[in-house]
Amino acid sequence: MDVSGTGGLTDDRVLLGRTSTAERVADILRTRIAEGYFPPGVRLSEENIGGALGVSRNTLREAFRLLTHERLLVHELNRGVFVRVLAVGDVDDIYRTRRLVECAVVRGLGQPPFAVEGLAAAVAEGEAAARAADWTGVSTANIHFHRELVALAGSARTDELMRGVLAELRLAFHVVDDPRALHEPYLRRNREILDALRAGERASAERLLARYLDDSRTRVAAAYARAVDDPSGSAG
Hints:
Order of helices and strands: HEHHEEHHHHHHH
Low-confidence stretches: 232-236
Radius of gyration: 18 Å
Largest sheet: 3 strands, antiparallel
Number of strands: 3
Shape: globular
Distance between the termini: 12 Å
């Protein structure tokens, strides 16, 4: 994985098209941060990233500003822009936000059947990654699952909010030293939520999700605290 240069961003240049904007650049970088190409603490090079995406320095700086506002990046005077390293309290706050939003989405789904194709694809993605012992891939699939869950609300604003929240959560995942222990238990629980929604059991799905998020909050916060207390044990 290229963590010091461009993270394969040259391949993303086609996403910008002729109407490149700072928002589109920010969206690309947000996705790359969420998927681990730029882990916490890494300095982002204006020259390398701007060259890879073919955008001006001003456009890139505006994208950096947007992501700083989302708490994904930090600007350090005379040093540059870095991917943010979360505090332990940030993890708890992220989960409080997730529980409020994700459970509300499920509660407000209306009458079945529900459009669960995206959820099913994310579950299959995670299970395939687990069979290949690709635990980073399992983590990515889990993020996809929760994005698809939120997308069931059909709200662009909610989608935008949760893209940032889930990308910020991924910053915590990147410093935990045992990703299998962290992510494997939730493969089954993702499928249970999917099965409940397929069956039209919205209330059951919400209960499963609430317990899931409470358990995940406890496990992730504890694992992250250990990693922060002992950085030498972190896999990054």
